[in-house]
Design a protein that fits this description.
With 328 residues, chain A is an all-alpha fold. Chain A is 80% helix and 0% strand. The chains are: A mainly alpha (328), B mainly alpha (322).
């Protein structure tokens, strides 16, 4: 039971301290000794594995210069094999298996980075992240763990962010983007679609809600940045918005409309609507900043008023939905 | 006093939908927007009124604060007017900070970061009970934590890297640990008390005050610890010559432990969203520890390995305990 319900109940019923304590216990809101023990075991296990992993990484980094090329590869490959072996010995969903798969995912990236550093392949950094994501995909798939999937998506998103931020001189960007006439806002929007697609897929598969929310957040961040870059003439280099820029804003608006429609139809989680509101408050504020000349300070007041009004409306409407959807 | 059966009956009848708890993401949206709007408002007010003197700024701040208080009182449940009130209050706080500093410290030898932090601390602590709004109370609590940590450090035992402190020895281990504990123990202690005394303040009807403050303390302990060493924390982006190092390098790992403490408090108070944020904060602190200057990577590595082994051993012991 939520604390807000209990707060209200304690006030309405004028419960005294012992009864309020009993209400917390009976409703399961306050963890009992068994819950605390289970929480502490999970916390200590998680912190222990993370600290050991970080310690190992720090140790390798501390002595990196002292190893030869062979030693470096051997070290990382042994670590990767050990992690994979542990995961096979105690496969997920066992905590050890999940931790081992996460480490295997991270070691794959370290191995790739070492390969690139040693043999000077000339690959761009984003290529490293894309290949890393591709090679680590089986680990994420095998883990069936939201935490491992989240790590995998972070790797993919870093790759996409780097790719979107690169200049036209990159060969891959030339082949796959510039030749097709795709400019930065549209690239950013495609990254947005990849994340939103992932969120929809995981939602459909019934995965952890926090993972769906994380992916949706990534998607909206990409989409919002795409619209802002389009607004400020990212592809037209100061010559105003191009057709592609306008298209990106329209497409993102359509995507937001679709998400809003589905969210309002299902009435399950308000979070996507908060993302929609947040994104469009940011985009509309950027639009106002672009349109204003800032010749006097009155414009600053207009911006402040706009932020207050839009966020106020957003807060009011979102809370209305929160209350209504809890009731259904 | 109710019996357990009577209480259970009441609990079963309690309608979940009547809860007015605001999800963390809506609070975040409103808080960020309100904060930016407040910054814009203070720019506008400063440009229009030109409060050249400290007294003028103080007066402007008090008027804005009174307006914010009135709006919060008028619109306790809604978001429309509250959002305007939040922005007005942020603008007022900047004006009060500027005005008070101008009056008390301008031109004196005591100027610097510490007095600013102290004034900010007093303002935030005063506003927690005064402003009748949960989000405002949470934000004030976080800012109070930050202000206290900065005041302790730069007021009692350190100076910013740009000041003249040549010849000062590197920070000792004891001083680094004591400095961190003095800065963050009050917040941790207050949070412990709030968790421990939850039934008492619920029965006393202090939920509207205690719960937002607890949220602010959890977020403060999880994230704001990085602000207590601002020039070291953001050194990657700062000047090459700069902050004093030494055992200060331990602070990020202490901050990671504080995040885990905040995680436990969030668990005790049933804040699942807050728990996720605390985990994120702990990971950020460990990443920061890697870059912290003052201890070799080897020492850091040994520290992490020992801590990791200790955590796993403790977990095993707890699991085996009947």
């Amino acid at each position: 039971m939520k604390r807000s319900v209990l707060d209200q109940l304690v006030l309405e019923q004028r419960l005294n301290e012992p009864t309020a304590a009993m209400a917390l216990d009976l409703s399961g809101a306050r963890p009992d000794a068994a819950a605390w023990r289970s929480f502490l075991v999970r916390l200590l296990n998680g912190a222990g594995i993370a600290a050991l992993g970080a310690g190992a990484i720090f140790f390798v980094a501390a002595n990196w210069q002292d190893y030869g090329v062979l030693g470096r590869f051997a070290l990382l490959q042994v670590a990767l094999l050990a992690a994979a072996g542990l995961a096979l010995w105690r496969p997920p969903p066992h905590a050890l298996g999940q931790g081992a798969v996460t480490l295997a995912l991270l070691f794959t990236g370290a191995l790739l980075a070492l390969f690139g550093q040693t043999y000077q392949t000339g690959a761009d950094v984003y290529e490293l992240f894309f290949i890393w994501a591709a090679l680590a995909f089986p680990f994420a798939l095998a883990s069936a763990s939201a935490a491992v999937w989240a790590t995998w998506w972070v790797v993919l998103n870093v790759g996409m962010a780097l790719y979107c931020g690169l200049e036209d001189t990159s060969l891959a960007r030339f082949l796959f983007a510039s030749r097709l006439g795709i400019e930065r806002p549209l690239l950013l929007f495609l990254a947005c679609l990849v994340n939103l697609g992932g969120a929809i897929l995981f939602d459909h598969l019934g995965r952890a809600r926090w993972l769906v929310r994380v992916l949706a957040t990534f998607g909206f961040v990409f989409g919002t940045v795409a619209c802002m870059v389009a607004l400020f003439g990212g592809s037209a280099r100061g010559a105003g918005m191009s057709q592609q820029d306008s298209l990106v804003i329209l497409l993102f608006a359509a995507a937001c409309g679709g998400i809003a429609f589905e969210t309002l139809r299902r009435k399950r989680d308000v979070y996507p609507m908060a993302l929609v509101f947040g994104a469009w408050i940011a985009i509309s504020t950027a639009f106002l900043i672009k349109q204003m000349q800032f010749k006097d300070f009155g414009n600053v007041l207009v911006l402040a008023a706009w932020l207050i009004a839009t966020s106020g409306v957003a807060g009011f409407v979102l809370m209305k939905w929160v209350r209504e959807w809890r009731a259904t | 006093m109710m019996t357990a059966d009577e209480l259970l009956e009441v609990l079963h009848k309690a309608p979940e939908a009547h809860a007015s708890e605001r999800p963390w993401y809506i609070g975040l949206l409103l808080g960020v927007a309100g904060w930016f709007a407040g910054l814009l408002l203070v720019l506008f007010v400063g440009a229009v009124i030109h409060p050249d003197s400290g007294g003028g700024a103080l007066f402007t701040g008090l008027v804005l604060l009174a307006a914010a208080w009135g709006l919060f009182r008028a619109d306790r449940e809604g978001a429309f007017v509250s959002q305007l009130a939040l922005a007005l209050s942020i603008a007022a706080q900047f004006a009060l900070l500027f005005g008070t500093y101008e009056i008390l410290f301008k031109g004196s030898h005591q100027g610097g970061i510490a007095p600013i932090a102290f004034i900010a601390l007093v303002i935030q602590l005063a506003l927690v009970p005064v402003m009748p709004n949960g989000l405002h109370r949470t934000m004030c609590t976080i800012f109070a934590c930050i202000a206290w940590a900065i005041f302790v450090r730069y007021g009692l035992w350190d100076q910013p890297f740009w000041s003249d402190r040549k010849g000062q020895p590197p920070l000792s281990l004891g001083m680094a640990l004591a400095g961190w504990i003095v800065a963050w123990a009050p917040a941790a202690g207050a949070l412990y008390l709030l968790v421990h005394k939850e039934p008492a303040w619920m029965a006393a009807g202090r939920q509207v005050m205690a719960r937002p403050v607890a949220t602010g303390l959890i977020l403060g302990l999880a994230f704001a610890t990085i602000i207590s060493h601002p020039f070291e924390a953001f050194r990657l982006f700062g000047p090459a010559e700069g902050p004093r190092v030494g055992w200060l390098a331990l602070w990020p790992i202490l901050s990671a432990l504080a995040s885990l403490g905040a995680l436990a408090a969030a668990f005790a108070l049933g804040g699942r969203g807050l728990m996720g944020l605390c985990v994120l904060a702990a990971l950020l602190h460990v990443s920061h520890f890697y870059y912290a200057i003052g201890a070799s990577l080897l020492i850091k590595s040994v520290l992490m390995l020992v801590m990791g082994a200790a955590c796993l051993a403790l977990a095993r012991h707890l699991r085996a305990k009947p």
